[in-house]
Amino acid sequence: MSSRAEQAADRIAVLVDDAEPGTRLGTKEELRKRCAVSVGTFNETLRLLQARGLVTLRPGPGGGIFAAEQSPMVRLGNSVLALDAKETDVADAVRIRDALDPLLIEDALWNASPADIARLHRQVEVMGQAVDAADAVAFVHANWQFHAQIAAISPNALLRSLYKNLLDLIESHTLDVRPAGEQPLGDYIAQRHALHRDIVLALERRDRNEALRLIRKHHTSPERPPVTAANAVGP
Predict the structure, then answer these.
(1) Closest by Cα among 182, 118, 180 to 149
(2) Which residues contact 187 (CB under 8 A, 6 or more apart)?
(3) Nearest to 233 by CA among 119, 116, 82
């Protein structure tokens, strides 16, 4: 069952959905009374809403709680990540993550146990469930978990730690996943699912050439223009 803070956050999220970005929703006290929760509970509600990138708080006269402005976007293959406010940081993290992937694939080719391969197959199944549900956000999170599992195979502690921190940074600032270009997002994630399935099969066969070819195909950085205020991808 949802907590009182989560219920209040869901109620305010409805207000945000009906408001233009930048619209003043009310003061903290006005919204707290509307949600009929304690001060402590409402403070937790605000933390939840801010973590989701739904509201901003402004102090002073005319201040209060406002519907958040449109989040920046970072291109990821044929989709875009809607972010809370760390557009450049996330773009850089994705680029560095892509550069590390071949090192992790090499380590997995040499060190993956049958149990590691079985875990990767199960994670690919989780990704497939997200494709079947047409849930792009769940797919992206399952995708990152897949790569975290590959990183965990590496005997290199520094590489594992660096890669995990990059994934955490990307994930912690992602609010949504939206289509980019003409290809439907559902078709794109289905193709990505198949690509990840093939990566596991190549690792299982210890097929180095195929595994490295697939991870090069997987890379998203070359498809993404540099992220600046002028060319940030819109919804």
Answers:
(1) 118
(2) none
(3) 82
CA-CA-CA-CA torsion for 171, 76, 50, 41, nearest 10 degrees? Answer: -50
The answer on pLDDT for 32 being more than 60 is yes
Which residue is it, tokens 């994930």? Answer: 171
Give the C-alpha separation, 188 to 150, whole Å.
22
* Structure token pair of residue 32: 């707290």
The three-state secondary structure class of 175 is strand
Rounded to two decimals, what is the model's pTM?
0.63
Identify whether the C-beta of residue 64 lies closer than 8 Å to the C-beta of residue 28: yes
Residues in the chain: 235
DSSP for residue 20: -
Residue entry with tokens 């901003």: 56
Query: Mean pLDDT of all residues in the chain?
Result: 83
User: Residue 144 carries which side chain, given as an amino acid letter?
Assistant: W
CA distance 97 to 93: 6
Rounded to an integer, what distance in angstroms lies between the CA atom of residue 87 and that of residue 229? 10
Q: How far apart are CA 84 and CA 119, in angstroms?
A: 31
